[in-house]
Design a protein that fits this description.
8-stranded antiparallel β-sheet, alpha+beta, 33% helix, 22% strand, Beta-galactosidase, Chain A, domain 5, 566 residues, 9-stranded antiparallel β-sheet
């Protein structure tokens, strides 16, 4: 699908005079925050509290890091005895992870004094280069919140055996970053970064010797950012459940900081966390991982498990998130998670994929139908291709998806990819075990409105679906529709002599659970190579079932996925 397919979209891509003026003002405020005068209001003298964290740590990663074998964000760098801060990063996500310092947890988990000292040496190298003006990428708005949270979380490691001058440098750099966070936390046009900044600023205020007034000010910014970034159903406006996992993983340690500081936990915090956890649980498959929409697969299952453990037994899982635009069906045999087609707006659209009407389906034991997800290190055209419609288990008409991912300009003047659509979804309808979702995104282009009817089958399990292509105006004409069903890498498809059926084998499963049958009566099916990227999946290569069919006028296509009885 090309940009020309949606060249009629009335979209402001940030090129107007007003947007340029806003960007200039933001740059000025950020530059001022980095000056001595700008950071004066965020001054502190020492660490007073150490927050806990929910992330797994592996001391062997720290040992590899010190030998120059650095793996971050799906990319690797061989330092060869040089400082990693002197080498060009292999990608933007790698640079953000490197300068975000989340890797300090692996060093703190080590009892080896040499490894712990190595972490402090790396931090001093970083301080030297930043003070020399050599680390421009360290000031990225995605990076600063991560670094502030990491430094205060691992302040025991950083302050261990350091001289007063180095300790003071650490505090000054944190104050500078806190001043930047205060600017970012007031910006509602930067997407989820506003909430990241506000939460990190609250970490800073609680963990250092900042006055209670600074804590209250940071609380107010977090409240405003939650209102701007989190929808009433608990989902993020970016629609990325994995991103939400990271946010909640930062919010939960704040509860311990309040207790340690002997301050009352603000009234908004526990209900906000509970709301978000309810949405995260909705997006979970029975195996504990998240459905692969909008980059959610980058969240590791161990972190998802830690986050969803909060409020266990008290936080209800959602079955419908109408504000965020996801629906869930579940019975004793399986789970279906579907995208009802809500479109994120503005700065929140920079993470989303063109996943309208896509779905994932799993049994109580295995994922069968998935989306492709996105590689952790993906950038540019690669990221664009995995966020595009064909990378989802969805519908195309004449190879055009219901949405398109196009270049845009963010609030900082940087190029990013955003998802757009020519029209809106229809309101989902639910009955017992059934779901109807629809979208008008291709009506102007092709004349057709698309509806998906999905039903979990009660007897023995399985999924029944039919897709309706509605020619409401009689102008649809002759079109070719494509239905894609991407398979999980553990599913092995086998073609049959019947072209309308494909057997799906699960070699790891016990007899009775190891064979499924996908059928589309009377319609030829074929297989195409595909990929499935999830943080915990080592081998992404897989295949997709493809259904191609010519239509003319209103048409229904029926298909089903059932246990194979031979």
């Amino acid at each position: 699908m090309t940009a020309e397919s949606f060249d009629h979209l009335p979209v402001d891509r940030g090129a107007g005079l007003r947007a340029r003026l806003r960007r200039l003002m933001l740059r000025w405020r950020l530059a001022y925050a980095r000056t001595r005068l700008g950071r004066w209001r965020q001054a502190a003298t020492r660490f007073v509290l150490v927050p806990p964290h929910l992330h797994l740590a592996d001391p062997s990663v720290a040992a590899d890091f010190l030998t120059g074998q650095i793996v971050l964000a799906g990319r690797s760098l061989l330092a060869g005895g040089r400082s990693p801060f002197d080498l060009p990063p292999p990608g933007t996500a790698f640079a953000q992870a490197l300068h975000g310092f989340g890797w300090l947890r692996h060093f703190e988990a080590s009892a080896d004094p040499a490894i712990r000292d190595g972490a402090r040496q790396l931090v001093v190298q970083w301080l030297d280069r930043r003070e020399a003006g050599q680390l421009g990428e360290a000031d990225a708005p995605e990076t600063i919140p991560r670094r502030v949270v990491a430094w205060v979380t691992h302040s025991t490691l950083l302050a261990e055996k350091v001289d007063f001058a180095t300790y003071r440098r650490l505090i000054l750099h944190l104050a500078r970053d806190a001043a930047v966070l205060q600017v970012l936390a007031r910006r509602s046009d930067i997407g989820m970064r506003q909430l990241d900044a506000a939460v990190a600023l609250l970490f800073y205020a609680l963990s250092l010797d900042r006055p209670d007034s600074a804590v209250r000010q940071a609380e107010g910014l977090v409240v405003a950012a939650i209102r701007a970034s989190i929808l009433p159903d608990g989902g993020p406006r970016s629609r990325n459940a994995g991103r939400l996992v990271g946010i909640v993983a930062n919010l939960i340690p704040l509860l311990a900081l309040y207790r340690a500081r002997q301050l009352p936990v603000p009234e908004f915090l526990n209900p906000a966390i509970a709301r978000m956890v309810g949405f995260i649980r909705m997006m979970q498959h029975p195996d504990g991982g998240l459905a692969l929409f909008n980059g959610a697969g980058l969240a590791t299952r161990d972190l998802v498990a830690e986050v969803t453990r909060f409020g266990a037994g008290r936080v209800a899982r959602l079955d419908s998130a109408p504000d965020t635009g996801f629906e869930r069906l579940e019975n004793e045999h399986g789970v279906l998670i579907a995208d009802a087609g809500v479109l994120p707006q503005g700065g929140f659209a920079g993470e989303a994929g063109a996943s309208a009407l896509a779905f994932e389906f799993s049994t109580k034991f295995d994922r069968l139908i998935v989306n492709c997800g996105i590689p952790q290190s993906a950038e540019g055209e690669v990221a664009q291709s995995f966020r595009a419609g064909p990378a989802h288990s969805s519908v195309l008409i004449d190879d055009i998806a219901l949405g398109v991912v196009l270049p845009a300009t963010d609030a900082f003047g940087r190029s990013e990819l955003r998802v757009f659509s020519a029209d809106e979804n229809t309101v989902p309808q639910r009955e017992a075990g059934s779901l109807i979702i629809g979208h008008r995104g291709l009506r102007a282009r092709t004349g057709y409105v698309v509806e998906r009817h999905l039903t979990l089958m009660p007897d023995g399990g399985g999924l029944f679906g039919f897709d309706r292509f509605l020619d409401l105006d009689g102008a649809g004409g002759n079109r070719r529709v494509t239905l894609a069903f991407h398979l999980h890498p553990r599913v092995l498809p086998v073609l049959l002599s019947r072209q309308d059926s494909i057997v799906l084998r699960l070699p790891h499963q016990v007899p009775g659970r190891d064979v499924w049958l996908f059928e589309a009566p009377g319609i030829a099916l074929h297989l195409e190579e595909s990929r499935c990227f999830e943080q915990d999946m080592m081998l992404p290569k897989t295949e997709a079932i493809i259904l191609d069919m010519a239509i003319s006028g209103t048409t229904e296509i029926h298909w089903r996925l059932t246990p194979y009885r031979g």
